[in-house]
Amino acid sequence: MTITNITEIQNPNLPKFQVIKENQDIYVPGIDAGNISKRNGMVYCLTGSGGSGKTNLLLNLFRNRHCYRNKYTIYFISALRVHFYQ
Questions:
Q1: Beta bridge partners of 39
Q2: What is the span of the domain harbouring residue 52?
């Protein structure tokens, strides 16, 4: 079945949010490694099986002075665990 008509209804209970403007074209200075992202506001998604070195890679990126050491003040790390049962 194909959806042909979508009607949007505005929620009158939502508060007004202030728009946050970020410039993603800013390069972070001092990153010498050529194969990692140098842009402001980047997102990494590390996926793999257990024991494949995801955490080790992430820690080494933040410990190395040529990578991300002392470049950022706030880090958001989310460790999700997903199980697929059959």
A1: 27
A2: 23-76
Q: Answer yes or no: is 63 within a domain.
A: yes
**Angle made by CA atoms 53, 62, 59, in degrees to the nearest 5:** 25
pTM of the model: 0.54
Distance of CA 33 to the CA centre of its chain: 19
What are 19-56's pLDDT values in tens digits?
A: 877 777 788 888 887 788 888 777 778 888 888 988 88
Is 47 within a domain? yes
The model's pLDDT over 65-84, given as tens digits with 9 standing for 90+, comes to: 888 888 877 777 777 776 66
Q: Looking up tokens 């980047």, which residue turns up?
A: 42
The one-letter amino acid code at 84 reads F
CA atoms lying within 13 Å on the CB side of residue 38: 11
Q: What is the total residue count of the chain? A: 86
